[in-house]
Each structure stands twice: as C-alpha cells, then as structure tokens.
Design a protein that fits this description.
Blueprint lengths: L1 H10 L11 E6 L14 H11 L5 E6 L7 H7 L2 H8 L2 E4 L5 E5 L8 E5 L6 E5 L1 E5 L3 E3 L20 H11 L4 E13 L3 E13 L2 H11 L9 H8 L34 H9 L5 H5 L3 H20 L1 H11 L4 H4 L5
Parallel strand pairs: 1-2, 1-6, 2-3, 6-9, 7-9
Antiparallel strand pairs: 4-5, 7-8, 9-10
Helix pairs in contact: 1-2, 5-7
Length: about 325
C-alpha cells in the first residue's frame, strides 16, 4: 500500500504542485477519538506520502486542530500517527495551540475574513483526507478536510457550512491532495457511519476534481448536488465538471472510475438536535455560553453509547479483522 500511494502521487505529477525544498504541512483527518477505520485517515496512506516527500521537501509537519467533541491528541495516538511522526522525524502540531492570524477573504460568500493558523500561511499544504459521506455536506474529502484547521468555534458555521468551505478554500487551497479510500466510510458520516473497504488511493493537484471523482466512486455524483464543490468551481478553485476531469491509473493510462453504491448520510441524533436548536431563538444561549459544555457532554454520551453499547466497536473490529489493512492498527513492527 505504501508503494501504491507513491505511485498515485507520481501519476498525479505531485512535483508540479509541491515546490522542491519547501516546508510542507500534512493534514490527515484525525477527527474522531472513538477509533473507527474509515472515519480517520489510515497511517499506511500517510506513511506513503511521507516516504515520497522525504528528501524532496525540506521539512514535514503533521497538523490537525481540536474539536469540541474530539480529543485530538488522543486521536493522534489512537491512529498511530504519533509513531509515524517519531519514525520519520515529523513535527506534530496541534493547530489549536498555535497562533492564528486573520486572513481577508476576497469576494466572500459568507465570511469577510477567516482565522487561520499562522503556520499554514507560510508552508505548503498537502491534504490527506479519508473518503466519507457526511450528513451536512453530502461528502467530505480534500475540501472539507481543511475544516479541521479552523478554531474550535467553527461549529457555529454549520448552518452555512457550504459557503464557508468555499471561503476557506479561497484562502487555504491545498497544493496537493492524496485521498485515503482504502477503508472509506458510508452511512451516517463523518463519525457514526460504517467502514467500507474500497482498496483505492486517489491523488490530484485539484482538490475540487478529486472530490468530484470521490463522489462518483461513492455513487453520489448525479444523485446529489454538492454545493461546496459547486461554489468552489464557480470561484475558479478547481474543476467540478466531470467531463473535464481525466481519471488515470498509476501508469497514467485512462481507466474507468470504480463505483460503489454507498449508503448516504442522514442526521444522527446529535446532528439532528444541533440542527433544530440552531433554528430556535435560544441558539446563542446554547452555542455561545457555558451551556455548550452541557450539550457537548450529552453528545459525547450519545456517541459513547453508540460506540460501546450499540455497534461502533463491532464495526471497528470487523473492519480490522476482515480487511487487508488491519495490521497497521494492531502490529507494532515497522512496515
């Protein structure tokens, strides 16, 4: 798998998008601390990116930010990204603990300026998302992955998430994307879905195009509109017209897009309650005061029950035992 990641990057001509000798921030998706394959980026895929970039770039960072429901340091360890950082001398950066700068958004749809981690304003960003369905954005991939670079109050953008994703991408467009579709997530993503083994790695210098193809792979393209991809394409941030996107194999030969019929995402209990409350007159009381801590506690209890008592752990164990990728989460020896 590590070699396959490098082959995908070569086929996508990563050197055309990542300057030699630059400092690079690697942004995997670590946004879940009740470990579930498909909900977070696989360490094998990240390791493949690291091996391809080491010696070509001057320095590698691995970055992710806290969430109100997620202990990102715990996720960093659970996903074994800490071992990759140690093995290859990569500096881990919890973006929430670093300085932020306010960056103006040109021709904004929703927010005139966005707070970005200062480190991302002076480095090259390589995003390494996992292919998932999403209850608020239909799918999550190379565009949505940068949501995890914003401050923890980003949940307040949920009612206008598609517009904010376009604004965010206009000031934080990744230079290159490598998408983990070895084990993806279908159903009620991004957290309480079901792992789906797809055995794929996608790579591109166009984050909109790679998400468009991911939508086709998941069987979502054509069935649903994906507003944030449309907004990004209209702003010239990438290509969303399927007819204008070439899909190549690792030998740079045309290939048909493999297609899976993914179960789509619906609001789970946590998402449903949030959506309802944000439409009420008490939304500021709930989401901008200490009452938010109570709401987060309730959400964590729901996810804990779903994970430990209903089906989450069973899905985790099945994905690990029945997929060819389970050893990356269970074995200690170097690969």
């Amino acid at each position: 798998m590590i070699a396959a990641v490098g082959d995908a990057m070569e086929a996508a001509r990563f050197r055309d998008f990542i300057p030699e000798g630059t400092e690079v921030c690697l942004k995997p998706n670590l946004g879940w601390d009740l470990f579930l394959p498909g909900a977070v980026t696989s360490p094998l895929v990240v390791e493949g990116v690291v091996r391809k970039l080491q010696g070509y770039v001057s320095k590698l960072y691995m970055v992710e930010a806290d969430q109100v429901l997620v202990d990102i340091e715990k996720s960093f360890r659970q996903t074994r990204m800490d071992r990759i950082c140690e093995r290859y001398g990569i500096e881990w950066v919890n973006l929430s603990k670093t300085p932020f700068v306010q960056v103006p958004v040109p021709n904004a749809l929703e927010v005139e300026s966005i707070p970005l981690p200062e480190i991302l304003t002076r480095t090259t960003l390589v995003t390494i998302p996992v292919m998932k369905t999403h209850g608020k954005t239909v799918l999550t991939g190379a565009i949505k992955n940068q949501w995890g670079c914003l401050p923890t109050f980003r949940h307040n953008y949920h009612p206008v998430v598609n517009e904010v994703l376009r604004d965010l991408t206009s000031v934080l467009r990744p230079a290159f994307a490598v998408m983990d579709a070895t084990v993806a997530l279908e159903g009620n993503g991004p957290k309480s879905g079901r792992p789906r083994i797809c055995n794929l790695v996608l790579a591109s210098g166009d984050p909109v195009a790679i998400d468009t193809i991911a939508g086709e792979v998941m069987g979502l393209l054509g069935r649903f509109e994906v507003p944030h991809l449309q907004y990004c394409a209209e702003a010239g941030l990438g290509v969303h017209d399927r007819n204008a996107i070439d899909v190549l194999d690792s030998d740079r030969q045309p290939r048909e897009t493999p297609r899976f019929d993914f179960q789509t995402a619906e609001h789970n209990a946590v998402s449903w309650v949030e959506t309802v409350l944000r439409k009420t007159g008490i939304r500021k009381l709930v989401f901008e005061t200490k009452l938010l801590d109570v709401m987060c506690w309730g959400a964590k209890v729901w996810y804990f029950i779903w994970y430990y008592l209903v089906k989450g752990r069973r899905l985790r164990d099945t994905a690990i035992s029945e997929s060819p990728y389970g050893a990356q989460w269970t074995k200690d020896e170097p690969r």
